[in-house]
Design goal:
The protein is mainly alpha-helical. Helices cover 50% and strands 7% of the residues. The longest helix has 27 residues.
């Protein structure tokens, strides 16, 4: 579908109230309605959202919604995932692979990774809520890219896993219920980074439920079906789109 600008309505705006802090965002109505069918229905309805031109989303954060705003304002960019700018800068993997890398550097990279991948997961949840499959795909592509960039040769902790889907903050994917695709992603994340010869990794696996552990082992068998996949230890993006 080709995006066409409605000059007459170009200056009409819609207001979003985001998160429990009720942070206000204002966006052009035609952009948000083009991006999301539920928003289009809400802002053109006789109900409260249509009357006030205000839409409240309590189960997300300003940081995630800011990423959403970046994305919807790029309708002509073929690969819109590339326009997203995260709060935490994305460090290159070599920063902690260098000989003599300090513990502080490794901790910084790990914290940065966790923050960025959590933002991507929450963006996926917001996109699912607003029925935006293209944004879901872009968010998943970002997650896969982060994992494939940041995984390393034993220094980097592998257990950024299912707890990302259940952070107790009431997000869209809390408890993993809305995120079967994301759960599969997290299972595969463990599969490509776990080292079964490392005691610390095995100790973490002992904390998993039997169901999760079975799924991890099945993912190992599926992902590492060929020698090339074993050597690359990369998550294939297309599996989650």
């Amino acid at each position: 579908m080709t995006y066409q600008t409605n000059i007459r309505g170009a200056l009409e705006t819609a207001t979003f109230i985001i998160g429990p802090e009720k942070i206000k965002f204002v966006a052009h109505k035609q952009f948000v309605c083009y991006a999301s069918p539920p928003l289009k229905a809400a802002f053109n309805s006789p109900f409260q959202e249509g009357i006030t031109q205000t839409f409240e989303i309590p189960n997300t954060t300003p940081a995630v919604f800011n990423l959403w705003m970046q994305w919807i304002y790029q309708p002509h960019v073929q690969h819109r995932a590339s326009v997203l700018r995260f709060d935490a800068p994305i460090l290159m993997a070599r920063e902690w692979d260098k000989p003599g890398a300090t513990a502080e550097t490794i901790d910084l990279v790990f914290a940065e990774f966790c923050k960025n991948i959590k933002l991507a997961i929450d963006l996926w949840g917001l996109a699912e809520y607003l029925m935006m499959p293209n944004l879901q795909n872009d968010a998943l592509s970002i997650m896969v890219g982060l994992v494939n960039t940041y995984r390393t040769n034993g220094k980097f902790p592998f257990h950024v896993h299912l707890n990302l889907l259940d952070d107790g903050e009431g997000g869209f994917v809390a408890g993993g219920g809305r995120g079967q695709t994301l759960r599969r992603f997290c299972i595969d994340l463990i599969a490509v980074t776990v080292d079964f010869g490392t005691r610390s990794h095995l100790d973490v696996l002992d904390t998993f439920s039997p169901e999760d552990l079975v799924d991890v082992l099945a993912a190992v068998a599926r992902i590492f079906g060929t020698q090339a996949q074993v050597a690359q230890r990369r998550i294939p993006t297309a599996d989650y789109l």
